[in-house]
Design a protein that fits this description.
Length: 384
């Protein structure tokens, strides 16, 4: 399969190499890495985790930003990154924090396994690497929460290793540049190989001195110019010889296999108040939203009816009946949509919390590690 993909790519790009030679005789294909870096030097984005030109990257900041940027956009991550860096300025400080504090600071950013892995990784770096991040992909991948992409990103950006972390922006740029007709995710290995051809030029076999800049340049190019819709091809430093631009079908790349959407799951959430306090519990460590805080609730199941969900309400002797709120809370996770019916109840001041649950003042909810779906539920339950 890999040979067939490479052959298809060569078939797409070989004619362009001959047809698109520039007037001065220079080969625009060979010039791509230099053109890309020259463009980056003029137009690089200013990001909280990116140091000024010429200043070495901080591996801790690179790692922290890359973990946060998994499945999350730059605009959303910025404030969280700065908040984390102010609270825990280095990996040793983060490792010394409690996991509960890390989850609380992470609340609202989503994909909470990242927060648990973030803390576990910090502990591992301090314990096993004397507080310094390893500088190779192989060693980085042994750390909690660091997969192939993140390892490549840290190795390239923090340590200038000759590798290419392929994110969504780079996938789009490369698939257009070479007109990769193979759909994602099957095309991922091929796109990565093609992206490697855009690394800064190697001299006498030495490591490219600006591998990290090459990767970030492609990310910035995809973010600002080679956008999903209406790409500004006239401004692109790699526009000459771009296969998709020559064909005129830029917006059709990257090709994608049909997406499977999960079935709707339904459940109930129970908002119980005792004066100015609310009843909370902690989710199991493993699984979706592991270790996060929530109000008591039912299982989330496909085609679950309200009566079955209501039967899973917490047992408090002072609750005579549950009041169902009008409407429901809708939330979408990566693999399935969720709809929760919200029930409310009030109990006397001395009502004890059931085993595994606790009372928390409503005014202190901001300090709790509540995921977005639970904040929606509480807002819906407390609304007059």
């Amino acid at each position: 399969m890999g040979y067939e993909l490479d052959r298809m790519t060569l078939a797409n790009t070989a004619p362009l190499r001959n047809k698109s030679a520039s007037r001065d005789g220079a080969d625009p294909i060979a010039a791509r890495p230099a053109l890309l870096l020259a463009w980056y030097d003029r137009h690089r984005r200013v990001l909280p985790w990116r140091p000024p030109h010429g200043v070495p990257a901080n591996p801790y900041a690179v790692w922290l930003s890359e973990i946060m940027l998994q499945q999350t956009g730059v605009k959303t991550v910025g404030p969280y990154f700065e908040k984390f860096l102010a609270r825990w300025p280095d990996v040793a400080a983060l490792a010394a924090a409690s996991r509960e504090d890390v989850l609380r600071m992470w609340a609202g950013l989503g994909y909470y396994s990242r927060a648990r892995n973030l803390h576990a990784c910090a502990v591992a770096v301090v314990r096993d690497h004397r507080g310094s991040f390893p500088d190779t992909e192989q060693e980085l991948r042994r750390l909690p929460g660091i997969g192939p992409y993140t390892a490549a990103a840290i190795a390239a950006i923090a340590f200038n290793r000759p590798t290419m972390p392929v994110d969504g922006n780079i996938e789009r740029v490369v698939s257009r540049l070479f007109a990769v007709d193979v759909p994602l995710p099957l095309a991922k290995p091929l796109i990565r190989d093609l992206a490697m051809t855009l690394l800064g030029e190697q001299v006498a076999g030495h490591v490219p001195s600006r591998a990290g800049d090459s990767a970030q340049a492609l990310m910035d190019l995809g973010s600002s110019i080679c956008s999903p819709k209406r790409p500004a091809c006239a401004l692109c430093p790699l526009g000459e010889g771009c296969a998709a631009r020559t064909r005129g079908d830029q917006e059709t790349f990257p090709r994608k296999a049909p997406k499977k959407s999960g079935e709707l799951r339904r459940g109930a959430a129970f908002v119980v108040c005792r004066g100015d306090e609310i009843l909370l519990r902690r989710r199991p460590e493993k699984g979706l939203l592991g270790g996060m805080t929530e109000v008591p609730g039912s299982d989330w199941r496909v085609a679950q009816d309200d009566e079955t969900a209501l039967m899973q309400a917490p047992t408090l002797k002072d609750i005579k009946r549950w009041h169902r709120k009008i409407g429901a809370v809708d939330h979408v996770f990566t693999h399935f949509p969720l709809q929760l019916v919200v029930y409310t109840a009030r109990v006397p001041a001395r009502t004890p919390a059931p085993d595994g649950m606790r009372w928390i003042r409503i005014a202190m909810l901001e300090e709790e590690a509540l995921p977005k779906v639970m904040r929606k539920v509480i807002a819906h339950g407390l609304a007059q």
